[in-house]
Structure formats: structure tokens, C-alpha cells
From TrEMBL:
Ribosomal protein keyword on record: no
InterPro entries cross-referenced by the UniProt entry: CitT-rel, MatC_N
Name the record gives this protein: Dicarboxylate carrier MatC N-terminal domain-containing protein
Stretch list, region Disordered: 208-228
UniProt KW Cell cycle keyword: no
Residues annotated as domain Dicarboxylate carrier MatC N-terminal: 1-149
Length: 437
């Protein structure tokens, strides 16, 4: 058996053990990376750690640290109330506000993970307060980011259009943008219906949270003072305190730093959190403990193993096997599935940059429309970013307060698996089979 097949089988075993036993999948993946790297791929420690996602580690820690402080001093509660006022108290519109907000951010040039890092903590805090499914809210945030992700001035759009131009392939920027927008909008609408969105209709400030509508009023639901977790009392969520004003300023600074100055979201978030902690140590003392450390371990472990797969050539092995198929339409759908599966664990941008050139040989034959194929690959590689192993999915998982993270992780994993199974075939059928090109 080849080393590439062994590495794939080990990955399957990791999934099986993690889903049947109460073991953090990240810890299993680190052990698998060590075993496969040393015994099968003959990699040293540097080779094994080459795939460690240091940037994602910093983003996860920094963003959850900053928003843990925001939760402790009541800033997220204030933002939830502001969101309600924005839609005049109609709770059912909030998920769509978050969808539109992340879409607008990516459409004007924000990197998708940066937009999700900014919006997800606010959206998930709202979901927790008003009894909205965290899967519904998280999915709409991620799909919103992908809906705007391929505008002609966006990061993803610029990268794909640049690859198309470099490979001398026919391209259509508008088709690429609209394909991603429509697919993600349709998926978001389906998720909204299936996960309780219709039940939110008619609920507004008059009915309030799920607890209130059941007649189980709590201090938090009534807007009274509540214990913030470290002995201090948070003021009413509708009021602005110096700590909240400073936190809102920090969040605005994070947006400007990431979108305008193109600075790293994780490093900026940690820096801002440290500044807030220095001025308000009492409310920030426990914030470090609220960083989603199990999620950090899980994501970093799995992506380190994926890095070992890349180092030993397993990813290229799978791509080359598809390229050797003599049936263009079959090769096209397999490439869409490879894009989806790999992107669920790795960089969407990297996958798009690698797979589009792999499609060049049979696109040159003229049997497959280049415009449709490129759009199908782009959508397949990004729509799966709701997976908890992708950056966006990991941010959603880490940002959700007051949830059973293991259960939420499984929900995201199952949902991501459904998206991987269904969407590539659907976009292939709609965009590739008719021969748009």
C-alpha cells in the first residue's frame, strides 16, 4: 500500500475514533501527524510542524480573547440591543442582517475569515440571548461571507480572476460573482427554514427571548444587572459605560486595522484585548480562561495533519489521479468534490489556485465550458467553509457562547459534510453540464 493511501486511511481512523469516543480530534490528529510523519513519510519535527496553522491559532485566540472581554463588560449585550433596534425589534431579520453584513465586508475587499471574525461573535451572542439556533446563525454568517466573496474587487475574486488570466482561460467576473452569491443565498434560505428561522417570525421586543416568551423571566432577559462572572455587576445592556465605550472603540479599531490597513486580525485582536485588560483588569481577569482552548487544539491538530498530507504529496496524488481520467465531465465533477473535501480542512484560496491549473488540460479540449467550470470550482472550494475545520467554521465554533461545544462541533461537522456531499454535484449539474463557457 502506498504512503498516500496509508495517510488517507489514518485520517479516516482519526474521524472514527473522535466521533465514537470522547477524545479531542485535535489531540488525535497531532498523534497521527507524528506517527505518519515519522514512520511513513520520514519527516522530522520541522516537516511535521510545517503545516501547523500559526496564523489561525493567533486569530482564534485573539478574537475569542477580545470578545470574552466584551462579554464580561456587557458590550456584546449592548450590541445585541443595538441590532434589535436596527430592525425595529424583528428578531427574524437579525440572521439576515448578519448575512448581509459579512457579504458586504467581503465584497468590498475583506478577507472572508476577517469578516467572519468581526461579525460571528456578535451574531452568536445574539443567538444565545434570544434562543436562535447557533447553527442557523453561524451558517448565515459564513454563507454571507462567501456570497460576497467573489465580487470583482474582493480578495477571492481577484485571486481566481488572476489565475484564469495567467492560464489564458476565458473568464467572466460577473458569472463568478453571481454564481457564488446565488448558491450561498439559496443555501442560507434553506438553512433558515430548516433550523427554526420561520418560528422567529412574529417575535420582537414585545415577546423577547425564548425564556421570556415561556414566562420564565430572568434578570438578564429583563435587562437588569447580572453577575458578569467575576464578581462585578454589569450595568444595564442599554447603557454605555467607559469600559463599553473603550471596547466598542477597540472593535471599530479592529475593523479598520483589518479592512483598511490589511493588518493581521489575530495580532490586532490580542493587542486590543491586552490594552483593555490593562485599564479594566477586574472585568478582564477571567477572559483568558474563556478562550476556546479545546477548539484551538482541535483545529490546530487537524490542520497540522493536513499539512503532513501536503508535505508527503497526498493532495497532489489525489489531484493527479483525477486529471488522468479520460472522461471530461467525470473529471470535472471529481475536481469539484476534491475542491470541496480538501477546502473543508485547508485554505480555500490555496485549493482554488491549485485546482484551476489542473483543469486546464481538459478545458483546452473544448468539451467543458471554462467559465462554468471555474465558477463551479470556486463555489465548491468556498461554500464548505462552514466546516468546523476551516477557518470560518472554527471562528463560528469558538465564538458561540453558552453552548455545548462538542455538540455544536458535531452539528457543524454534519452540516459541513452535507454541504460537501450535495453542493459540488449541484453546481456541476447547473454550471458545467450545460457547457457555459
Amino acid at each position: 500500500m502506498s504512503a498516500e493511501l496509508i495517510s488517507i486511511l489514518v485520517l479516516v481512523v482519526v474521524f472514527v475514533i473522535a466521533t465514537t469516543r470522547s477524545i479531542n480530534m485535535g489531540a488525535l490528529a497531532f498523534a497521527a501527524a507524528f506517527g505518519v510523519g515519522e514512520l511513513v513519510a520520514d519527516l522530522d519535527a520541522d516537516g511535521i510542524f510545517a503545516g501547523f496553522p500559526g496564523d489561525l491559532f493567533v486569530v482564534l485566540v485573539g478574537v475569542t480573547y477580545l470578545f470574552a472581554i466584551a462579554r464580561a463588560n456587557g458590550t456584546t449585550d449592548w450590541l445585541v440591543h443595538a441590532s434589535i433596534r436596527l430592525v425595529r425589534g424583528r428578531i427574524a431579520l437579525i440572521p439576515w442582517v448578519m448575512f448581509a453584513l459579512t457579504g458586504a465586508l467581503t465584497a468590498i475587499g475583506a478577507v472572508s475569515p476577517a469578516a467572519v471574525a468581526i461579525v460571528a461573535p456578535i451574531a452568536l451572542s445574539f443567538a444565545a440571548r434570544y434562543g436562535i439556533s447557533p447553527l442557523l446563525m453561524g451558517a448565515l454568517v459564513v454563507h454571507g461571507a462567501q456570497a460576497g466573496g467573489f465580487s470583482p474587487i474582493s480578495i477571492y475574486g481577484s485571486i481566481v480572476n488572476g489565475v484564469v488570466e495567467r492560464e489564458n482561460l476565458p473568464g467572466n467576473e460577473l458569472v463568478l460573482f453571481l454564481a457564488s452569491l446565488v448558491v450561498n443565498l439559496i443555501i442560507a434560505a434553506i438553512v433558515f427554514v430548516l433550523f427554526g428561522g420561520l418560528k422567529l417570525k412574529g417575535r420582537d421586543l414585545a415577546t423577547g427571548s425564548a425564556a421570556e416568551s415561556d414566562g420564565k423571566d430572568t434578570d438578564k432577559d429583563k435587562g437588569k444587572d447580572t453577575d458578569n462572572g467575576d464578581g462585578a455587576l454589569a450595568a444595564d445592556a442599554s447603557g454605555l459605560t467607559p469600559a463599553r465605550i473603550a471596547t466598542l472603540t477597540a472593535l471599530a479599531a479592529l475593523v479598520v486595522a483589518v479592512l483598511v490597513f490589511d493588518l493581521d486580525a489575530g495580532l490586532c485582536a490580542i493587542t486590543l484585548a491586552v490594552v483593555l485588560s490593562a485599564f479594566w483588569p477586574d472585568t478582564s481577569r477571567k477572559a483568558v480562561g474563556e478562550v476556546a482552548w479545546p477548539t484551538v487544539l482541535l483545529i490546530c491538530g487537524v490542520l497540522t495533519y493536513v499539512g503532513v498530507l501536503e508535505e508527503m504529496g497526498t493532495i497532489d496524488y489525489a489531484g493527479n489521479a483525477v486529471s488522468d481520467i479520460g472522461v471530461p465531465l467525470l473529471a470535472a465533477v471529481l475536481l469539484c468534490y476534491i475542491a470541496a473535501v480538501i477546502s473543508a480542512f485547508a485554505s480555500s484560496v490555496g485549493i482554488m489556485g491549485a485546482l484551476i491549473p489542473l483543469a486546464v488540460p481538459f478545458l483546452a479540449q473544448g468539451e467543458i465550458g471554462a467559465v462554468g467550470m471555474i465558477a463551479a470550482l470556486a463555489v465548491s472550494a468556498t461554500v464548505v467553509d462552514v466546516s468546523p475545520f476551516s477557518t470560518n467554521g472554527a471562528l463560528v465554533l469558538a465564538a458561540a457562547p453558552d453552548v455545548d461545544r462538542e455538540r455544536f462541533f458535531r452539528q457543524l461537522m454534519v452540516y459541513g459534510g452535507i454541504v460537501v456531499a450535495v453542493v459540488p454535484a449541484a453546481v456541476w449539474l447547473v454550471l458545467v453540464v450545460p457547457g457555459f463557457g
